[in-house]
Design goal:
about 55% strand, four-stranded antiparallel β-sheet, 9 strands, mainly beta, elongated, Jelly Rolls
């Protein structure tokens, strides 16, 4: 995590959420996980803002790597706009769902990155319920 922290503010399904710092600070979370060549993955996440102000742009990226740690390809690139996110106080969240490209033949793992871009005057953003599961296309 960078410029982000777990918080009990507006928990989802009984779990803590990650809060990205507001304003011009870039903030992100990332996770690496094992993958199966030839498969696709379903990426899910819930996002919301804290307060009535404007949100910030968010990119969700996934990269495929081989056993030597070499980048093979991009498996997912998604973008959300500052206006996409409801206020968490309303108990409404933006549901992000996307299917990756097919895992390359020599890939052993993937890295998922959820990146809040710096945006002047933006309020904090929350991320919850992140998951990545194999998906039959």
């Amino acid at each position: 995590m960078h410029n982000a922290q777990a918080t009990d503010l507006y928990p989802r399904n009984g779990a803590r959420v990650v809060q990205f710092e507001p304003g011009e600070a870039n903030a992100y979370i990332q996770q690496t996980f094992a993958v199966t060549p030839g498969k696709h993955y379903l990426i899910r996440s819930q996002l919301a803002k804290v307060g009535k102000g404007i949100g910030a742009p968010v990119n969700i990226l996934l990269y495929w790597y081989d056993a030597a740690g070499q980048l093979l390809d991009t498996g997912l690139y998604g973008s959300m706009f500052p206006t996409d996110f409801p206020d968490a106080a309303s108990n409404q969240w933006f549901s992000y769902r996307a299917i990756t490209t097919q895992v390359p033949r020599h890939a052993t793992h993937a890295q998922l990155l959820i990146n809040k871009l710096g945006y002047k005057g933006s309020v904090p953003l929350l991320v919850a319920d992140c998951s990545c599961t194999e998906y039959e296309v």
